[in-house]
Amino acid sequence: MIRVILPYHLRTLARSDAEVQVAVEGTVTISSVLDALEKKFPMLRGTIRDHGTQQRRPFLRFFACGEDISLESLDTRLPDKVVSGEEPFLVIGAIAGG
Predict the structure, then answer these.
(1) Residue 10's pLDDT is what?
(2) DSSP H helical segments within 1-98, as ranges?
(3) Could you read off the pLDDT of 35-68 as tens digits, one per residue?
(4) Which of 83, 75, 44, 76 is CA-nearest to residue 60?
(5) 43: how many CB neighbours lie within 10 A of its CB?
(6) Among candidates 91, 93, 86, which has minimal Cα distance to 33?
(7) Per CATH, domain 2-93 is 3.10.20.30
(8) Residue 9: strand, helix, or coil
(9) Burial 10-42 (b: 16+ CB within 10 A, else e)
(10) More confident residue, 61 or 98
(11) CA angle 32, 88, 43 (to 5 degrees)
(12) Is-contact 45 14, C-beta < 8 A?
């Protein structure tokens, strides 16, 4: 099981705790984790990735093992510590201001 940490606004929408677990079959990539997350919580479809392009939404960032992987390809394989459940995959709401 992959552990996923969601930001407040997405956990409220999904009516879930901050940390959720999803099952991913095959290679564990950013995309496969997001697919599993959207399958478990259909109300999150379109909130993390654009419906058409499937690209990450602005103001959301992805982290694994303390590294910002937001700009990596969605086909990027996640670290073994995330795959084993030792470390979570984090979806973080970015902060902007002026």
Answers:
(1) 95
(2) 8-14, 30-40, 80-83
(3) 999 999 999 999 999 988 989 998 899 999 999 9
(4) 44
(5) 12
(6) 91
(7) yes
(8) helix
(9) bbeebebeeebebebeeebbbbbbbbbbbeebe
(10) 61
(11) 55
(12) no
**In the chain, where are the structural domains located?**
2-93
Report the predicted TM-score, pTM, of the whole model to 2 decimal places.
0.92
3-state helix vs strand vs coil in the chain, percent to 5: 25, 25, 50
How far is it, in rounded angstroms, from Cα 26 to Cα 36?
12
The whole-angstrom distance between residue 21's C-alpha and the CA centroid of its chain comes to 11
Tokens of residue 68, six digits = 């910002």
Short-list 2, 85, 90, 75, CA closest to 40: 2
